[in-house]
Amino acid sequence: IMLTTMFLGCINTKGTSQEQEQGNISQEQQLLLNGISLTKDIISSVYRGEDKYTYEALLYALAVNVDENNLYKGYFTFDEDKGFIFPLDKSNEVLIQVFGEKEYSFEDVFDYEEESDIYYKDLDFGWNTAYIAENVTANMSDDKLKLYTKFELINLWYDVEGDPVPTAIAECKITYCINKSNDKIYFQFENIEFVSKIEDKKENNNVITAWEDKNFEALIRFYLNNFDKDIYIKDLDNITELSIRSNRNIKTNIKECEIPEEYQNNIGLITSMKDIDNFNNLNEITIYNNEINSIYTYKNNLNISLLDLGSNKLQNLSGIENYGNLTNLDISDNYIEDLKPLNNLSKLRTLNLSYIGPTANNGDRAHISNIDINTISELTNLESLIIQNSNVRNISTLNKCNYLKYLDLFKCNLNIDELYLISDYNKNRIEKLAFEISNASGEPVVLDMSKFKNLNNLRYLFVTGGLTNINSLNNLNSLDMINNFISKSESFSNLKNIEWLKILNSKFEDPKVLEDLNKLETVYFSDTDISSLKHLKNNKNLKSLWIVNGNLSDISDLKEFTNLENIMLPINNITDISVLSELHNLKRINISDNPINDYTVIDNLMNKEEIQIIK
């Protein structure tokens, strides 16, 4: 391929010899002259399957063929099954498909914002595939939407043996404009630097990976089932989501691998992130429960939306500012003190700051950390904030987080009066709350749920400690309570939507309060004083029942729950289990540590492969 520059000019909108020459071309075969003109009808013809976009969101530019002597015209055809197809003898044609961030009607095409991100999608058209990389910004001026970018443009075709052969790489600028009078879209495609990099590309595909951390390499080798051969960059190109948890598990968007114990013994924990540069296309990175002590900037850092470095040895957040497109960040269980660098991450939606704190004298992380909410006050787009095991100050500054839906303050010491104001700040947006709250002296605090004024959208509540006036939360779907005393004066009568109920280490003054619930699907009681199932009989949709370490002796009422799939009743006082024969949807049974008289029913059920039984 010779080095050259080519230019495709816009077609004149008036009647010209070019347009007359086009007149004999069918809609399915659009001849390219000095440019390209796509009518609305032709654009509509690509609307098939799930790929439905507005007209102006589909931008096409087609490069002409290049040979050693001249530039000459090319054409494409449209096939309903394969989409746009290039003729096989014109291997150098390239189709670019560019999608706008938003959909616009044809008439509103000029209402693009002054700057808007444009996203590319690969397009498979028969035997040829176009690949596009990098981002582009769009600027509106003089009734033209100008797209400025530098990106690699690659056209692959296949040789007689079926192997892909790269044919062209270019850096391009695309400009297009729309003439409303005749509803035609005109494109200008200009190669800024048409320089062949084919050999470079081939070489890159065959680059052998280099690993700084041998434990990282060992995990990847197990994942690839490649223990003695070279690993090439191309072997990792399909991985966009990488999750490594300790030396026990590696999971990607493609598959998940549990590392066998005998193999774990030969693999230590990862100490460096640098080897992520062996991956070209990562969007999500999780390296959890390892020994990373610093944040490395990935070569394609702005592509990363999720970063999970929980349970490592980070002492500061230097480098985090380079991940400006993060929406999900977990830095829990680290040695971090200064959270100010987080304010650079304006796109964050989910943030986990649990169990962080400075190093104590013995080298371990301090048991309780001190978190000043002021330090993350600029993260106004947060939807989920998790802070566990901390002394939290200035919680009132969460009033800036207008989109906050999930707030977890488990094992936190904070001002209870400030806490009541949270719902006022967020005006009914909060959907999930989790608390284990004590005062500065470590004494438990009783939460009065009636003092939360704007929790109409609350769906999930998890509270450890005292809780009163729960009946005010009439839209709850899930309720978890630990270490609670539920008095007979407490009412569940308004909790008509509860489907999940979990109560641990608690006492009922009168379990009759449970009779108000009738939509339960999952019930989990552990270390409670429940001795009978009669108060749950209104829940005909119950599918999972857990009563662990209770006082349950009579389970004859199980026959009321014909939809039961899971019965977990270990460590009780059950002697008669004959009622199990009346339940025909069972999948899992645990009746261990009970003084059962007759196991005949269980022996019969064990003949059914679909049922898991622990006795």
Structure description:
The protein has 8 helices and 42 strands. It has 615 residues and is mainly β. It has a domain at 7-204. The protein has a 20-stranded mixed β-sheet that branches. The model is unreliable at 1-203 (pLDDT under 50).
Which helices and strands occur, and which strands form pairs?
Elements: E1 7-8, H1 17-22, E2 29-31, E3 36-39, H2 40-44, E4 59-62, E5 65-66, E6 71-72, E7 75-79, E8 83-85, E9 95-100, E10 115-120, E11 123-125, E12 128-132, E13 136-141, E14 144-148, E15 153-158, E16 164-168, E17 171-179, E18 184-193, H3 198-205, H4 214-224, E19 241-245, E20 249-252, E21 256-258, H5 261-264, E22 284-288, E23 306-308, E24 328-330, E25 350-352, E26 369-372, E27 384-386, E28 390-393, E29 406-413, H6 416-420, H7 422-426, E30 432-438, E31 447-448, E32 460-464, E33 467-468, E34 478-482, E35 485-486, E36 500-504, E37 507-508, E38 522-526, E39 544-548, E40 566-568, E41 588-590, H8 600-605, E42 612-614
Parallel strand pairs: 19-22, 22-23, 23-24, 24-25, 25-27, 26-28, 27-29, 28-29, 29-30, 30-32, 31-33, 32-34, 34-36, 35-37, 36-38, 38-39, 39-40, 40-41, 41-42
Antiparallel strand pairs: 1-18, 2-7, 3-18, 4-9, 5-6, 7-8, 9-10, 10-13, 11-12, 12-15, 13-14, 14-17, 15-16, 17-18, 19-20, 20-21
